[in-house]
Amino acid sequence: MDRKIVHSNVTVGENGHLFFAGADTVLLAEKYGTPVFLLDNARVRARIREYKEAMQMNFGESSVPLFASKSLSFKEIYRIMAEEGIGTDIVSSGELFTAVSAGFPMERAFFHGNNKTDFDIQYAIENRIGYFIVDSMEELLLIDEYAEKAGIRQKILLRLTPGIDPHTHQKISTGGVDSKFGSAIETGLAERITKAALSQTNIELCGFHCHIGSQIFEIEPYITAAEIMLSFILKMKEKFGFTAKILNLGGGFGVRYIESDPEISITKNINAIGAYIRKKCAETALDMPIIYMEPGRSIVADAGMTLYTVGTVKEIEGFKNYVSIDGGMTDNPRYTLYQSAYTVLLANKANEKADFSCTIGGRCCESGDLIQENVLIPKPERGDILAVLVTGAYNYSMASNYNRVTKPPVVVLRNNTEKLAVRRERFEDLVACDI
Ligand code: LLP
Fold it and tell me: Is 172 in the pocket of ligand 1 (CB under 6 A)?
C-alpha cells in the first residue's frame, strides 16, 4: 500500500482495490451500498489541529478556527468540532438547529448570511448564539430590537468587503465591492455601519469580518485583506476611539482535487499571515486583535470520497464514451455548477491501466448532469465501483432530491472501524412533507 493518489489517505491495496483511510472501498461499497459518502475522521481532526496549532502559535491561545459548516453539515460534524474545541460558522436556522441538536456550544457559534430573516434572528437569540456577523444596516437595527426584547446585549462582528479580487471562480469570489455580502470599506458604508453599531444600546460590537472567496491558492490576497482590515481598525480607533477585539479573516484556502493542483500548507499560510499582522500591529502600536479564520473546504474536502456503481457504458462510435453511475448532480452538483475538476478511479480495478477515455454521467434526466468529462479510467463494466476523490466539502451539503433521488448515507471511517453518521434516505423521507 505505498502508491498514494492525490492525497496520502488514498492508496491501492495488494488486491488491486482502492483503499481510503486504510479501509477497502470495495468492501465498504458492498456493505453500505452506493452511492455512499465516506469521511476520514483522522484527516478531519488532523486538519483542525493544524489550523488550531498554527493560529495559536501566531495569534495566541484564544485564536481558533471556526469551521464553515456550510461545507459539511450533519450532527456528527458538530460533535467533532465541539470535541476539538473549535468554533463554527453557521448560515441558517437549519444549520443552527443541527448544531444545537448535536450539543454544540452556542457561545462558539457565529451566524452569517446576507439575508437573515426575522425568524433567524429571534431563533438564534433564543438559542443564545455567540455572535452575529452582521451584513447590513437593516439587520443591525433588527438585532438591536430583538436583543432588547430578549433583555440581552448581543455580541456582533460587522462583515466588511475589503474590495479585492482573489483570482478564483467568479461564483465563489466574495470580497469585491460589487457583492451581495457585507458593507464596503471603499464606499464609506463600513464606517457608517460601525458608527451605528457603536450607538446601539443592545449590541456589543466586538470587531470585523471579511471573507474574500473560496478555493484560493495564493497568499497575497489574504495579506492584502489583512492590511485593509487592520488599516480600517486603526481608522476606527482614531475616529471613534473604538478598539476592535476580534478580526475574522474568513475561509477560502485552496484544496488539491487533481494531481496537477498545488497543495498548500495551512501552517505556512498562517505563518505568513501572522508575520504580516504582527509587523503591522507593531508598526502602528495596535494591540493585536484575536484572529479568527473560517475554513470549510480545507478541513473536510480531502477527508471525503464518494463511491458509485457503474451502470450503462455507452460507446458512441467515433465520438465519445459515456459511463453512467447511480448518483450524479444530486450528490455532487459541483461540475454542473462550476466545471470543478475531480479525480475519478475504478475502485475495484485500481491497478489496471487507465486507458478508456470517457465522460462520467449522472442518473438525472438532464444532459448537464455530469461528474467529469474526458477522464481516463480502466475500461469499466456494469457493476464496477467508481470512486470520486476529494468530495468532503460542498457535496453532501449541496445534495438535492432532484428527480426524487434519495440522498446517500455518510460513513465516518475511524481507527479501522466505521460509524454510520447519516443513514441513506428512504422513499418515505421523500414524501415526509407531502400532504
Ligand atoms: N466564511 C464565509 C463567510 C463563507 O462564505 C465561506 C464559504 C467560508 C467561510 C468557507 O470557505 P472555504 O474555506 O470552504 O473555502 N459551493 C462552493 C463554495 C461556496 C463557498 C461559500 N462560502 C463550492 O462548491 O466550491
Answer: yes
